[in-house]
Amino acid sequence: MCGIVGYVGYRRILPVLLDGLKRLEYRGYDSAGVTWPEEGGLMRVRAKGKLSVLEDTLEDYRSTKSKVGLGHTRWATHGEPTEENAHPHTDCTGELVVVHNGIIENYYSLREQLKKEGHRFMSETDTEVLAHLIEKYLDDDLEAAVRQALKDVTGAYALGVLWARRPDMLIAARKQSPLVLGISENETFMASDIPAILPYTREVIFLDDGEMAILTEQGISICSLENGQEIEKAPQQISWDAAMAEKSGYKHFMLKEIYEQPQAILNTFRGSIIPDTGEIELPEIGIETQTIQRLKRIVLLACGTSWHAGLIGKYWIEKWAGIPVEVDLASEFRYRDLLMDEDVLTIPISQSGETADTLAGLRIAKNLGSPIVSICNVLGSTITRESDGTVYTHAGPEIGVASTKAFTSQLTALYILALFLAQKRKSVSMQDAATYLKALMKVPGIIEEHLSKWHEHSRKLADEFYTKADFLYLGRHLQFPVALEGALKLKEISYIHAEGYAAGEMKHGPIALIDKDMPVVALVPGDHVYEKMISNVEEVKSRRGIVVALGRQEDEGLKRISNVMIGVPEADPMINPFLYTVPLQLIAYEIALARGCDVDQPRNLAKSVTVE
Ligand code: M6R
Fold first, then answer.
1. CATH number, domain at 313?
2. Is 2 an active-site residue?
3. Ligand 1: distance of its center to the CA of 610 in Å?
4. What is the model's pLDDT at position 176?
5. Cα–Cα distance between 358 and 342 in angstroms, integer?
6. Which of 374, 407, 441 is the last residue of a domain?
7. Which of 17, 190, 313, 587 could form a disulfide linkage to 172, CB 3.0–4.6 angstroms apart?
8. By alpha-carbon position, which residue is closest to atom 7 of ligand 1?
9. Cα-based distances in Å from 352 to 73, 246, 383, 486
10. How far apart are CA 20 and CA 290, in angstroms?
11. Is 118 in the same domain as 22?
């Protein structure tokens, strides 16, 4: 939700903090701030609005020689996005500052208590109580004071602390909000996400819940928040590089990430499949073949776009592995009366690996004895660490708030996982598996070949329809979740009201919406429900709705009954979700662009939803 970056070392502080914040701005962008030691005290500069406003404000401070500091970019939870509510927040003396990501649930009672004790509050945030609490316990041992203060706190936090009297060090602490530490020669880093530190180091340590870290130029020491005992943690090497988290000439991250999909899909299946024989290897699956063989049910658990991936995965798993699948919204799952045990496999799906609801669902399922195999894009993220095993998507960092390449990479992971489970249960022959894998292998090439044509069509379509107020997306079978995803993409970045529906449901309500102003995006591949979809398109037509059809290039019949048609090559029906998703992403992108929206950082949203 918010982005934290911290540095101790030999570089001038402002460029490091601003560059780090830029790479984290996707996490929150309503205000930002930085702090660093200066002449025995602390300098603190904050600004409402995007990071660029803070950058302008910092012009006068560029000459600072400080080599230590903290930065924060905010996504408001408590208190409006104003300069006063922007982080860092200070204690009463102004000598101690904190930056925070998460929510302090008992902040109100703490605040009232601290006020009674004489503390003066300057913001409406929950975070400010942390600064005053630490102040309350601070004598001359900052580490002890942070540990003591956090004992009073309930809620979630990734925390960075700087004290003017120890200008050579930073303290980091974590509970339920991500924090990664970076190490290089004579410098150390903290950040909410890896891209912030990629230009400097690929050696990282993921802080776990209940841990605190002390960062100095010489290195990082980690201890338990509970008892202060030292914890040994070896750094891990990250394979991403800094260029992967840059726009590389594209106008937006979202567009770059749409175009990166052939590579992301390829990277996700490459190394795991042998298409000639049909073999699949998932060395990090983390569960035994016997466990797979005795499974009675699978629960796919996710939020947003990842949930849509799960809805598609259900069709593949049920078809190939013959195991009943439930696909749950994690925010609903966590409050249901669950019927689960060790024969129910839970598969949390998450790009970030940090989504609060998905993580909570994972923990509940685990407590009920369910084995957990996650699908995730971020090595070392909390969800992967709490799972028995993981199937990694190798999409590289996804920066655009609207998920694109992560989605098609999740589909890839689900596709191979479904076949893997089927093989272990002997419900699919190696020959059939080989056929399906060969179909999957064609996906990157087909997308690559059609990207620019789809993009061109999307531009034209955006010109024609960007002023419309509502869109309906219809699909059946595998294309139903694709319709949901198409509608989500459009609404989140263009702010147009859009709904996805199973086409067969149209008669049960949404048909009432259709009129001459309503574009209806119909997904009509040549699969076993083709005739049914054609009937639905006719129904839209006869109510004067505008039909935007996606279907086989050579489908003249469909072309005739559509107002606009985007051609998609005919392929094995199992891979259609990949092929029909990409044009929908481009349509959303171009419409948002035509409406002048901020594509990469849409209003009210954040990339990683680490609070409930
Ligand atoms: O990191 P996750 O995959 O767990 O995130 C889940 C959703 O927050 C995410 O997919 C969200 O819906 C995106 N904005 C969709 O584009």
1. 3.40.50.10490
2. yes
3. 11
4. 85
5. 19
6. 441
7. 190
8. 304
9. 18, 18, 9, 20
10. 46
11. yes
